[in-house]
């Protein structure tokens, strides 16, 4: 890992106003949540909190993904990556530095979300608050590395963005798809599709089990533990990082 490359990525995030944009957008989400929560007949604060955390999670994921993909594509178009690789920096170290920089950004934004939620809903937070923040951090790390991989493989930033978002939606809906697949009778024409979904589920992170808004109000005892969140985060981060590294190693400049 090269510290200079890590600083280069972090400075690019500040230059592109990523941090400022997401901070301002997060404050707007909080304001909108209270405005919509005021329309509820009962439990207005709880409604506002659930709406806020759900929207905040999507905002941070989409913002980080868009930054990674378009930053990576601009670096290729401006020959920045070629210049960095011409220095005494190995390609493995290059990918490791990018991944570490994205991990730092994920930690910062998950901490930002944790502070906002603690300030707004401190009176209603349950025992699952810490787990929710931790799983959000893992979700951001996985998605940023996934954006790095798809940004490496696909030359078009639009294709890479759509593919990354499709990956995220699949990871979010995989639990529902598995539930539907388990109810399909054996011997029906949909059995092949159901078996395909079960196979695909082995290679997709279970985001449907992470960052559930209900944890903040009702706790997470007996639902999901830190072990599952950590294993998923480490496993898919390593897999996607290795895939991006293989693509960069095979790439001819």
Following the backbone from N to C, one meets helices and strands in this order, namely: HHHHHHHHHH
Structural class: mainly alpha
Number of strands: 0
Strand proportion: under 5%
User: Considering DSSP H and I runs of 4 or more, what fraction of the residues is helical?
Assistant: over 70%
User: Rough shape?
Assistant: globular
- The low-confidence runs, each spanning 5 or more residues with pLDDT under 50, are none
Describe the sheet with the most strands. Answer: none
Number of domains: 1
How many DSSP H or I helices? 10
In whole angstroms, how far apart are the ends? 21 Å
- Report the average pLDDT across residues: 80
Rg, nearest Å: 20 Å
Topology:
Elements lengths: L2 H13 L2 H20 L6 H34 L2 H7 L4 H31 L7 H25 L3 H26 L8 H10 L13 H5 L7 H25 L3
Helix pairs in contact: 1-5, 2-3, 2-5, 3-5, 3-6, 3-7, 5-6, 5-10, 6-7, 6-10, 7-8
Structural commentary:
The chain has one domain. The mean pLDDT is 80. The chain contains 10 helices and no strands. The protein is mostly helical and 253 residues long. The two termini are 21 Å apart. The longest helix is centred in the first third of the chain and has 34 residues, at 44-77. It is globular, with a radius of gyration of 20 Å.
